[in-house]
Design brief:
The protein is mainly alpha-helical. The chain is 45% helix and 0% strand. Helix 3 (88-97) packs parallel to helix 5 (115-137), helix 4 packs antiparallel against helix 5 and helix 5 (115-137) runs antiparallel to helix 6 (142-165).
Length: 189
């Protein structure tokens, strides 16, 4: 075969052609297989349609956990769900461990689903903001400042431990003045 770009004969004339179709009719050659048995699918079958109660305006009963519609009376509340991808007890603990009161303020901004975490964020923010003011007042005395610092570390550990342990029953450990104030803030939200 000549592959030169300028040929005097066309390649189609030298190419071998397919054999012509055989026009003889034999019963074996023309026999066709039967069409495959496909299951018939009814697109409007009863299994694909929702229940008639799906379209009604009547409120439905709670049938499970998660999701819900407040307007239609189907409110399913998961008390242990949080906005961040952390467990509830870890988030409540972080309200005290993330440089209080800044960690509490951060959780107040970010967390919207859990009242338990928001309570501890409010309590941490209020309590440690007041302690920060005390630090400023007693900054003239190094002994009082160090004693207040030790009290800070003890309070952080104590409150973080209670926030972690009490998360199973959602019990709130309230510091005398600031805990009630934090509860009233969370309840009014």
């Amino acid at each position: 075969m000549d592959f030169a770009p300028y040929q005097d004969t066309t390649p189609e004339s030298t190419r071998t052609l397919s054999p012509p179709p055989n026009r003889t009719s034999s019963p074996a050659r023309n026999a066709r297989s039967p069409p495959p048995n496909r299951p018939t699918i009814d697109p409007f079958g009863a299994s694909s349609l929702p229940e008639p109660s799906h379209f009604s305006d009547e409120p439905r009963r709670n049938t499970g956990v998660g999701g819900g519609d407040v307007e239609n009376g189907r409110l399913d509340v998961n008390l242990f769900e949080t906005s961040l991808p952390l467990r509830l007890d870890y988030e409540a603990m972080l309200a005290y461990l993330l440089l209080p009161p800044a960690g509490g303020v951060f959780l107040l901004v970010v967390e919207h689903k859990s009242d338990y975490v928001r309570f501890h964020a409010w309590q941490s923010s209020l309590l440690f903001a007041a302690i920060f003011v005390l630090h400023l007042i007693f900054s003239w005395s190094s002994i009082l400042s160090w004693m207040l610092f030790v009290v800070d570390i003890g309070l952080i550990g104590f409150l973080a431990m209670h926030a972690y342990r009490d998360a199973d029953g959602l019990d709130r450990f309230e510091v005398p003045f600031f805990g009630g104030l934090a509860s009233s803030f969370v309840d009014s939200e």
